[in-house]
Every structure is written in structure tokens, then in C-alpha cells.
Specification:
By secondary structure, the chain is mostly helical. The protein is built from 17 helices and no strands.
Length: about 450
């Protein structure tokens, strides 16, 4: 029977399942944005230099965070599929491989940050010794965060893949209040604490990361009954799943890592344009994050639902659901663009940055209004539907091709060679979002993204 338009618009059951997963994840993302917003607001009163330094140093932390997302989301492709198959032993093995992989990355980032924080900052702001000094201070305080963030983030992704979305939400609510409180204490020197400024922002964030580690990992390793993964399981034999894990997960890790490196390359370009451009981007970053909150929730939900559907063996249903999620992505993107259009002036004017930075921020907002529509659809396809379908190699090629062949070279030329307006610089830096949106639509339509995943030992 040929599918009807109604089939592509989705069923009531699909929307209920999507809401149950997407709303808690979106609220969690909103809280994360709130933390970043409070950090930016508090540091903006210290001037452009400290705000820029924390933003650029944060890019290196974000590089690690995206690598963790790659490790976790690579495992998520397997864990959500195995959950649909009701194959808990294979699911546990996927988690074990994920955690071992994570420790390697966390150790590498920790060693580099301990050894050369100033060198890290020179990558982003080579000609600005003030920014380098402030940024190195920030990084030194954040050294323990790699293990804390890595464990809590990857365990959160696994919990979500089996429908456990409320626990991470409760954790994020607690982390928000912990971060804001300790930022207020240490940035400004309240309650008898020393006035630490940018170091205080790092310390407040670190304390919040420790809270997340205790909360999430305490639940995951000692209380969770769905997966029932325990610390002793880290030593289990996983050899019969390693090949399948790497076949599916390594392209995700490479894709997300190259995305992180690409974002860092974008930050390097911005750092070379000048502190005012970096400060303006810091202002708009929060707006970008706010506009993508619902998109990320739907993206995660689409990936989990697609994985469960394919785990049950219903590939035709997964194809129809893919179109439904794409339509939802377009509607969310349009809504986000309208919200940014309405709120951009009060948000930019709220920050205590220089007049030059404010003027640039308005131009960046204009570009974001256009990009966000494509970004919403692209994110739901690449990070949700197609990835859950196991089409990770195709997505890796798209990320490498469009980010490194289009966005970064065009952004470099626009910003540092031709000195175009801020609107066009930002548009060129994000042009891959538009290209990938079209590219992935045709992939969805082809049906070639629906891949089989083998159990342990198959």
C-alpha cells in the first residue's frame, strides 16, 4: 500500500513519544544555555578581554566536549538499536567500549592542558598577550573537568538511548544553581571569598561539573535498573563487538571531532579578526544556543525513536518517520528565526560590551536568522535520523567535505582577505549548514541510509 500524506505527517503515538523524549532533553539544553548566559553576563562586566578569553578558552573545552559527544553518540547508535532488539548483553558491551575509549581522550586533553595552556591560547589569539594570559588562567582551573564532563556526558547519552531522560534533566537543574551560585561567589568575591574574576568563572563551572559527575554516574553505575551497568562491567570481554562498534562509531567520532576542529578553526578566524568580533560572537552564541534548544531535543528524540524502530525491524516505518522529523525541523527553524528577530535588540543591548562589538553583534544576528532554518533541518537529519539509521560513513564524508572545503576557506577569505561585512563573514563560516541540508534530504529520500547493525558475535 502506497504511503499517504497523512503517513508522512506522523501519528499521534509518534508525537507523544517524541514529546516524552524531546521535552526533557530540550529543558536540559535550556538550562545549559542558562549557565552559559549567566557566565557571559557576569564576565561581560569585566570587559571585552576577559569575556573574549573565556570564550576562546572555552573553544578548547568545547573541542573535548564534542569529541565526547562523538564517542557517546557513536555508542548511542548501537545502544538504541540494541534496546529495540531487547539485547542487553550487547548493549552493555557497547557501553564498556565507549567508556574505555573516553578515558583515552580525557587523558590526552588533560595532559595537553597541564603542559601548555598558553600554547593552546596562542592558537586562538596569537597576537593578543592579554587574552592569552587570561585564557591560560581559565584553562588551568578547568583541568579536572575533562574526566568529569566526559563521564557524565557519555553516561547521559546512554541513559537517553533507553528512554531515561528525566534523571539528566534533574541533574542539569541542580548544576545550574550550583554554577550560578559559585560564579557569583568567586567572580565577584562575595561571601568573603577572594575576587577571582575569570578564574572564578572557571572554578564555578568546575564545581558544577563535579556535581554532574556525582549525580549522573552515581545513578548510572549504582542505581539504574534498565541497563543495570555496574563498575565491574568495565572489565567485561567485548572483543566480539569491537569490530561492529568501530564500524558504526568511528565515523561518528571522526565526524564530530572534525566538526569540533572546524569550530575551533572558525574561532581562530574570529580571534584574528579582533576582540570586538569575538565579544560580539560571545553575545550571539547564547542566542544561537537558545534558538537550537528545541532542535537538539527533537534531534535526540528522532535518533532514539529511529533506532528503536529499526531495532524492531520496521524499516519502512523508519523511512516515513524520517520525513515527519524533517518537516518538524523546518517548522522549528522558522519559529526560531522569528524569535531571534523579535529578541535580538533587547538581548544585544543588555550586554556591557563596546559599541563596536554591539554593532557587529546585530549583523551576526541577521545572518543567524537565515542560517537557523537550515541548521534545524540539517541537525535533525545528521544528528538524529540518518545517524540512527547507521549511515555514519556518509555523514562523515559530508561533514569533512562541506566544513573544510566550503565553510572554513570561504570564512577565511571573507574575514581576513576581502574584509567583508560581519554578516557575510558569518554566513560564509556557516555555509555548510545550507549545503548539508540539501545533501541530506536527497540521502533521506534514497533510503540508502537504512543500515543493518549486527549483535555481539554475529
Amino acid at each position: 500500500m502506497k504511503p499517504t500524506l497523512r503517513d508522512y505527517l506522523g501519528t499521534k503515538d509518534l508525537y507523544i513519544r517524541m514529546a516524552q523524549i524531546a521535552i526533557p532533553i530540550s529543558l536540559q539544553q535550556l538550562i545549559t544555555v542558562g549557565i552559559n548566559l549567566m557566565d557571559t553576563i557576569m564576565l561581560s562586566s569585566m570587559g571585552d578581554a576577559q569575556l573574549s578569553a573565556s570564550s576562546l578558552a572555552g573553544q578548547f573545552i568545547t573541542l573535548f566536549q564534542i569529541c565526547c559527544m562523538g564517542i557517546g553518540m557513536g555508542a548511542n547508535v548501537l545502544t538504541s538499536r540494541f534496546w529495540g532488539m531487547k539485547d542487553i548483553p550487547s548493549l552493555k558491551k557497547a557501553v564498556t567500549i565507549m567508556l574505555r575509549f573516553l578515558f583515552v581522550f580525557a587523558t590526552a586533553f588533560t595532559v595537553v592542558t597541564i603542559a601548555a595552556p598558553e600554547w593552546i591560547m596562542t592558537i586562538y589569539a596569537p597576537d593578543d598577550p592579554t587574552t592569552i594570559a587570561y585564557g591560560a588562567t581559565y584553562l588551568r582551573w578547568m583541568i579536572p573537568t575533562y574526566y568529569c564532563m566526559g563521564l557524565s556526558l557519555t553516561c547521559t547519552i546512554v541513559l537517553r538511548s533507553v528512554g531515561q531522560v528525566k534523571i539528566p534533566l534533574v541533574c542539569s537543574i541542580g548544576a545550574f544553581f550550583v554554577n550560578v551560585f559559585f560564579n557569583w561567589v568567586f567572580i565577584f568575591g562575595n561571601l568573603g571569598a577572594p575576587r577571582m574574576e575569570i578564574a572564578g568563572a572557571a572554578l564555578g563551572t568546575l564545581i558544577a561539573r563535579v556535581f554532574e559527575l556525582v549525580f549522573i554516574c552515581g545513578y548510572f553505575f549504582f542505581l539504574d535498573r534498565r541497563i543495570a551497568y555496574r563498575l565491574r562491567d568495565i572489565t567485561m570481554q567485548c572483543r566480539n563487538l569491537v569490530r561492529e562498534y568501530f564500524r558504526v562509531s568511528i565515523p561518528v567520532l571522526i565526524s564530530d571531532s572534525l566538526l569540533a576542529l572546524g569550530n575551533n578553526a572558525v574561532a581562530m578566524i574570529m580571534g584574528r579578526i579582533g576582540p570586538a568580533f569575538v565579544a560580539a560572537n560571545s553575545v550571539t552564541t547564547v542566542v544561537q544556543q537558545l534558538s537550537s534548544v528545541l532542535t537538539q531535543g527533537i534531534s535526540n528524540a528522532s535518533g532514539i525513536i529511529t533506532g528503536h524502530t529499526m531495532g524492531e525491524g520496521d524499516y519502512k516505518k523508519a523511512q516515513r518517520q524520517g520525513y515527519t522529523f524533517l518537516i518538524i525541523g523546518f517548522l522549528i527553524g522558522v519559529f526560531a528565526a522569528l524569535v531571534i528577530l523579535v529578541l535580538r535588540a533587547p538581548i544585544v543591548n543588555y550586554y556591557e560590551v563596546s559599541p563596536e562589538a554591539k554593532a557587529i553583534a546585530f549583523e551576526l544576528m541577521d545572518a543567524i536568522i537565515v542560517i537557523v532554518i537550515f541548521q534545524a533541518m540539517n541537525s535533525i537529519l545528521t544528528k538524529g535520523v540518518l545517524r540512527a539509521g547507521g549511515d555514519t560513513k556518509f555523514l562523515m564524508i559530508g561533514d569533512i567535505l562541506f566544513l573544510w572545503v566550503a565553510s572554513i576557506p570561504l570564512g577565511y577569505l571573507a574575514g581576513l582577505v576581502f574584509h567583508w561585512s560581519s554578516f557575510w563573514i558569518y554566513t560564509m563560516l556557516k555555509i555548510d549548514q545550507i549545503i548539508k541540508c540539501v545533501w541530506c534530504y536527497f540521502r533521506l529520500r534514497s533510503g540508502k541510509w537504512l543500515k543493518k547493525i549486527n549483535r555481539a558475535g554475529e
